[in-house]
Each structure stands twice: as C-alpha cells, then as structure tokens.
C-alpha cells in the first residue's frame, strides 16, 4: 500500500501504521479513510495529500 504525504506540513500517512489518534487501525488504505478524516499534523483535508514512493 502506498504512503501519502500532506502538501502543507509534510505529515505522512503510512497505511502500515494507520492513525491511532483518529481511531484508524493499521492496515487501512488511504483510499479507505473516512471522508471526514483530516491530517493530524495540520488539519488539512484528504485532497491535500499526494502519493509518495
């Protein structure tokens, strides 16, 4: 699964880790995140994340 990086603060969503603070379990693909999920680093919406290698 691909990682995604916030264009504003650089926080990286790693599906292998998830987002514990938001209740997103490890193994959750970026595409499967809830629509209301936001960057834990700066609060940006999902649309401001780009895939990284």
TrEMBL record:
Cofactor: Fe(3+)
One record GO biological process: alkane catabolic process
Single GO MF descriptor: electron transfer activity
Alphabetically ordered keywords of this record: Electron transport, Iron, Metal-binding, Transport
Similarity field: Belongs to the rubredoxin family.
Ranges where the Rubredoxin-like domain occurs: 1-52
SUPFAM superfamilies according to UniProt: Rubredoxin-like (SSF57802)
Entries under CDD domains matching the protein: rubredoxin (cd00730)
Descriptive protein name: Rubredoxin
Signal peptide: none
Transmembrane helix recorded as keyword: no
Keyword Metal-binding: yes
Cofactor note: Binds 1 Fe(3+) ion per subunit.
Binding site for Fe cation: 6, 9, 39, 42
Species of the source: Sulfurimonas gotlandica (strain DSM 19862 / JCM 16533 / GD1)
């Amino acid at each position: 699964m691909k990682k995604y990086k916030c264009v504003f603060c650089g926080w990286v969503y790693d599906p292998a880790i998830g987002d514990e603070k938001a209740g997103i379990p490890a193994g959750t693909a970026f595409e499967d995140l809830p629509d209301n999920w936001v960057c834990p680093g700066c609060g940006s919406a999902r649309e401001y994340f780009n895939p990284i290698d």
